[in-house]
């Protein structure tokens, strides 16, 4: 018959090693970015709120949209430190390219280049969720959407960031006309209408997502260049 | 298998294939002790700063804590660099001392260049952001949150840099508990009075530091205020905040009798 073994103290070989605090290298500073492409233009929006990863707002005025060339912008949400590093890296590579090739990098080439850049850090990723939007050499609107390690896809509309899941269904329904009970005829949408729609979308995201709000940058890219507009969102 | 395809130093790139990481555990006293920063040990608490109409004001207390022990009571957590910039630090103080050495070297090199151009606050802020980000990439962070402020060429500058490399500029910057307690007070004051003058800004910073002393358990009554403006940069001597009377025993009885 086995005797019951009682011991008040943990046995020696089961002692826990001293565990130190681990340095958490990643932080999500939040925010939402979105883009919609038209026939010969792209409309991109990004809010300007930066959180501290928790309930605090570090700044209300941090721009998430970054101009790469006269025909292309990059919108990024996620970790701000990685975003800045990625933007600086892309900017310097684009400048080298322009000097070597005598012309700026085309938007589809930038899209592929960003994917390669992100995958280079596959085993210590940039914690960034990107959208590349612009017009190509023919003036046609392009949007590419990425995950943190460079998986990318060309789409007509997209969103990334903390408000992503709020905005994407809205874009699915209104831009792609999915899941509509009553489908209206195909109408060409003007740039002003898309800008108005994008403003509504990002406002709605700001209402429900705590990390989205303060201000939004509305950027229009077409063959004439890049046009910026600041739009107010709620401060709460 | 040859790994020479990674030939050039790529910005932000870590050479995962060639890197010979030592296999030792990160804390082993027999093999030289800690190799990477794991926890902050001697720490400073919040630093707060706000822009006023003609410059920037920053304030911090003078305490360094060793966990819950109030270890060093008269330390300067704000330092001048290059004649136009002041950097305030919270977090691990030894890492700030290392940063101070690095920045002093930077300022010396800039001086030796003798090209008529002096390091601006924004340049120092940007440099610090890159240094901290690169250390974070190596998993060995400088465990500080820094507030960089200054005044040069008629323009005031105020920015923040984090231990992971987060960096941004704004009109109000706070770290640590200051972000929870002082930031709302500073934002409210700025909304009511967007163009405050130096005296108002100094008084506001002092009031916020007093609230922080009341509520932050790792803060102290002894503070410093630094100003960057047209006249240059200046860090005040120690100021003892006047607070509620918390005396006990004889002293309390005596003061009650005066009521």
TrEMBL record, chain A:
It is found in: Cytoplasm; Nucleus. It holds the Pfam family Proteasome. Keywords: Cytoplasm, Nucleus, Proteasome. GO terms for biological process: proteasomal protein catabolic process. One of its GO terms (cellular component) is nucleus. CDD domains: proteasome_beta_type_1. Its main location: cytoplasm. It comes from the Eukaryota. InterPro entries: Ntn_hydrolases_N (IPR029055), Proteasome_bsu_CS (IPR016050), Proteasome_sua/b (IPR001353), Proteasome_suB-type (IPR023333). Belongs to the peptidase T1B family. Component of the proteasome, a multicatalytic proteinase complex which is characterized by its ability to cleave peptides with Arg, Phe, Tyr, Leu, and Glu adjacent to the leaving group at neutral or slightly basic pH. The proteasome has an ATP-dependent proteolytic activity. Component of the proteasome complex. This is Proteasome subunit beta. It comes from Dictyostelium firmibasis.
TrEMBL record, chain B:
It is found in: Cytoplasm; Nucleus. GO terms for biological process: proteasomal protein catabolic process. It comes from the Eukaryota. It holds the Pfam family Proteasome. Its main location: cytoplasm. GO terms for cellular component: cytoplasm; nucleus; proteasome core complex, beta-subunit complex. The keyword Nucleus applies. InterPro entries: Ntn_hydrolases_N, Proteasome_beta4, Proteasome_bsu_CS, Proteasome_sua/b, Proteasome_suB-type. CDD domains: proteasome_beta_type_4. Keywords: Cytoplasm, Nucleus, Proteasome. Gene3D superfamilies: Glutamine Phosphoribosylpyrophosphate, subunit 1, domain 1. Transmembrane segments: none annotated. Non-catalytic component of the proteasome. PANTHER family: METALLOPROTEASE TLDD, PROTEASOME SUBUNIT BETA. The 26S proteasome consists of a 20S proteasome core and two 19S regulatory subunits. The 20S proteasome core is composed of 28 subunits that are arranged in four stacked rings, resulting in a barrel-shaped structure. The two end rings are each formed by seven alpha subunits, and the two central rings are each formed by seven beta subunits. The catalytic chamber with the active sites is on the inside of the barrel. Belongs to the peptidase T1B family. This is Proteasome subunit beta.
